[in-house]
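Case study: DUF3000 domain-containing protein.
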Amino acid sequence: MHTRTLPGNHGAVFARTLSALRDVRLRSEVRLTEVPAPTRIAPYAAALTADVIDIADPEDDLATGRFVVLHDPAAPDTWDGQWRIVTFARAELEPELAGDPMLGAVGWSWLTDSLTNRGLGWTAEAGTVTRVVSESFAGLADREASVEMEIRASWTPVGGDAAEHLRAWADMLCTIAGIPPLPDGVVPLPGQRR
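Here is what the predicted structure looks like once written out:
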């Protein structure tokens, strides 16, 4: 955790948020790892990486991403608040999606739907959805085309806590990995931490 001395009780508030993030339990397919956070964006920051694995083949990552929580008591104008969540998610998709003109809008809706489905509010959202199509030629021509989607997004949480936003983001990460949502009333088994 990166901090600097600020007046008030912001360090204690952020410490509680960090503790809540460390205690989050997600679906068994999602592996969370705490990593060094950016140090120049905000006085307080925490970062996690996540990999969505194939339960049948735990060595196979279906999706990967990064979730960063920033806290700045000065409430930067562009944030519209004291907290900011910055995320990245990437997964390989079916090759036939390469030419789908709606793929970007669908990818963004997976994020907003995940937040909405958890009853969360947000503001000052921004982001991009990128598709990368790789085609092979000559000596590699026998390889099938591949399509990757990357979703980069940031938003300011309104109500709720960072742990709930992490859960919503993990839901979106599972969606782009092709894992269907859990039915209502089904509680995921605790995920293993690396």
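For the exam, be able to explain this: The helical segments are 10-23, 103-117, 162-176.
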